[in-house]
Amino acid sequence: MEKLLIFVFVFTLSLFSVISHSHTAFNVLNYGAVGSGRTDDTHAFSRAWEATCMSSSSSTTMDVPSGKTFLINYLHFHGPCNKKSINIEINGNIIAPSEPSEWRCENNDCHNWMDFRHVDNLSIRGNGVITGDGDKWWHTSELHSRPNALKISSANNVTLSGLTFKDIPHMHVILDSLTSVHVSNITIDSPGDSPNTDGIHITGSTNVVVDHCRIGTGDDCISIVSGTSNVKISNIVCGPGHGISVGSLGKNGNHDIVENVEVSNVVFIRTMNGARIKTWQGGSGFARNMVFEKILSHESSRIIDIDQFYCDHMHCVTQESALKVSNITFRQILGTSSKHTAVNLECSSSVPCTDIVLDDIYIVQNDKQRASVACNNAYGRVQGMNVPDIRCLNQM
Ligand SMILES: *[C@@H]1O[C@H](CO)[C@@H](O)[C@H](O)[C@H]1NC(C)=O
Ligand SMILES: *[C@@H]1O[C@H](CO)[C@@H](O)[C@H](O)[C@H]1NC(C)=O
Ligand SMILES: *[C@@H]1O[C@H](CO)[C@@H](O)[C@H](O)[C@H]1NC(C)=O
Ligand SMILES: *[C@@H]1O[C@H](CO)[C@@H](O)[C@H](O)[C@H]1NC(C)=O
To answer: Which residues catalyse the reaction (predicted)?
Structure first.
């Protein structure tokens, strides 16, 4: 009996030690971070990251504690770390160097403020606010020199939640070459006149879920570009901004593909575009199998927008080739529009848009006038409510 008790005791102890060793936390304060908002804590964060990634535990957390403000310069979080889970818990606030000249780029790899690469099973969460002092950059510096806030690339199984991103010099969040990624409950807050500040930019990724986010910015709230498939976006408030866009695709003759995109339960507040697909002339590939549904617009323009003549400068030459746009459904899209054109389907004559379905559309102009519709080379059908009267779609 005594032996049995001792055995149970020792067994329990060793079990506890296994459990406690399987997860380890690394607090940036233990690696020299100060969190005063004035001392540069970049080096301390780097050391805490190395410990978090290199630890022998199968599950680790890097803690950025609440109640402090950390001044951070360019920071790399590179793997692989080979863990069942690796968590970054950000409850403190993070601020950028206050002047563009104070950003230090040490290895010529400085497009991204916080750059996560090759880190599988990664979760980044917390209620921290990440502020970029973008107003110092937006109207004075060249686009390619402006840092994006957070880029996560080349990984499987990533989640991002809770954080707020504010006034970022370039894009807020970039998801690049990821498989299985879930972004939820994040807030993006930059002014409507901040140039090229996409909220969430998704490229080369598959199995992407974005939900319950509030995004206000000066460019696309969410942009989905080449090599991306199986995307579900829901419960988003977007505005100011340029809507939720597939594209731009096909720039400089590129072969681009995006497919299987579902966007639902979105509110557009005073956005420049709403549910949008934009492609350049001269490209190839396709944008297909998409549904945009349950969308409410408050004083937005071009709420439904397919543009195969996208051109972000004054003059683009006419070209025959184009990406194929097909099987796109816009369903239950209601609300008010600010400019005359509420529905815009501008497709190429050489590669028309096909299988375009408009189902239950009810959009009125602010002043209760009829919003207007433009279509060219768009084939498909209209069903259900049809306000403004969409007659320009060609029958299949
Ligand atoms: C990620 O987690 C899964 C499930 O726990 C595990 O099978 C896989 O090996 C992990 N990936 C890495 C790189 O450790
Ligand atoms: C994804 O990562 C989380 C930890 O962030 C882990 O718990 C989960 O098992 C992983 N899932 C897969 C399918 O690897
Ligand atoms: C969303 O994030 C905030 C922190 O930014 C947190 O307080 C809140 O609990 C989160 N909500 C959910 C549903 O996770
Ligand atoms: C059209 O797209 C929808 C949504 O992605 C998809 O479920 C459906 O199978 C597609 N139809 C065809 C004919 O590919």
So the answer is: 242
Half-sphere exposure of 251 (CA within 13 A, CB side): 10
Please give the model's pTM, rounded to 2 decimal places. 0.94
Calculate how far, in angstroms, residue 258's C-alpha sits from the geometric centre of ligand 4.
Answer: 13
Q: Which two tokens stand for residue 244?
A: 């939720």
94 alpha carbon to ligand 4 midpoint, in Å?
43
- Tell me whether residue 124 is in a domain: yes
Instruction: Kindly list the averaged pLDDT for each block of 10 residues, start to end, along the chain of length 396.
Output: 52 48 90 98 98 97 98 97 97 96 86 98 98 95 92 98 98 98 98 97 98 98 98 98 97 96 98 97 97 97 96 84 96 93 95 98 87 95 95 88
Question: Which of 164, 180, 201 represents a domain boundary (last residue)?
Answer: 164
Length of the chain: 396
Please check whether residue 83 lies inside any domain of the structure.
yes
Identify whether residues 266 and 136 lie together within a single domain. Answer: no
Q: Which residue, judged by its Cα, is nearest atom 9 of ligand 1?
A: 84
Domain count, the chain: 2
In a domain, 201, yes or no: no
Scored b (16 or more CB within 10 A) or e, 50-81 reads bbbbebebebbbbbbbeebbbbbbbbbbebeb
Cβ of residue 22 lying under 6 Å from some atom of ligand 1: no
Q: What is the CA radius of gyration of the chain?
A: 24
Domain coverage including residue 76? 22-164
Question: Which CATH number covers residue 112?
Answer: 2.160.20.10
Contact present, 53 and 87 (Cβ < 8 Å): no
